[in-house]
Amino acid sequence: MIGVSTAAIAACAKVGEDVFKKETAPFDDPIRKWVLAHQTPVVRDAFLAITNVGSPTIIIPASAVLAAWLWRERGLPIAGAVVMSPAVALATFLAVKRIYKRKRPEGGAHLHQITYAFPSGHAATSAAVLGTVCYVLWREDMLPRGVAEAVAGIGTLLVGASRVYLDVHWTTDVLGGWAVGTLVAAMSAGVYERVRTKTRTLR
User: Fold this and answer.
1) pLDDT per position as a tens digit, 125-153
2) What integer pLDDT is reported at residue 50 of this predicted model?
3) pLDDT tens for residues 176-202?
4) How far from 17 is each of 8, 36, 45, 101, CA to CA, in Å?
5) For residue 14, how many C-alpha atoms fall within 13 Å in the half-sphere facing its CB?
6) Do 128 and 98 form a contact (C-beta atoms < 8 A)?
């Protein structure tokens, strides 16, 4: 957990600094140009569906439902609380959008997404929530480790990629979001392990 958290903090700091200093164009612009040149209607529709499912307005309520189920049906209040914690943490982290006030690429207006760009809320939420949920479900023996890692990794990757493909975020917005989300997931997993060990030792 410490290693993941340290790496996430370092990534947050590096990407955040580059965005603040407006030094990301040599990285962001070529990727955006390549993506726009290779878009197809079929892939765009697929990524639009992914981005809609991966929206914070879908993922966060879904995590709340899972948290309630873990708490009431499985008798796992700690697991339920940890599953819900990323949503609370992200509300604070995403407030940094107001500090950077970074404009989105032109595609943002086409999809009526006109909030600030950095960091990507979709990327941060998917990394934080999917990472935390899959970790908890694995530790509670509800998912095999390989399946948990695949769901968290592929799901987070696809949601982030959809934001770049649809031209609603710069690549560094997504990288920053992933870093923030990974940090939240690592912290949530760390809290879960500490509380889980204490509560189960007392039984």
Assistant:
1) 899 889 988 988 898 888 899 999 999 99
2) 95
3) 999 888 888 888 888 788 777 665 544
4) 14, 26, 34, 14
5) 10
6) no
Q: Is 112 left (phi over 0), alpha (psi -120 to 50) or beta?
A: left
- Structural domain spans, the chain: 2-11+38-198
The secondary structure of the chain as a DSSP string is -HHHHHHHHHHHHHHHHHHHTT--HHHHHHHHHHHHHT--HHHHHHHHHHHHHTSHHHHHHHHHHHHHHHHHTS--HHHHHHHHHHHHHHHHHGGGHHHH-PPPPTHHHHTT--S--SS-HHHHHIIIIIHHHHHHHHHTTSS-HHHHHHHHHHHHHHHHHHHHHTTSS-HHHHHHHHHHHHHHHHHHHHHHHHHHHHHHH--
Q: Are 120 and 173 in contact (CB under 8 A)?
A: yes
What's residue 145's pLDDT?
Answer: 93
| 178, 127 contact by CB (below 8 A) | yes
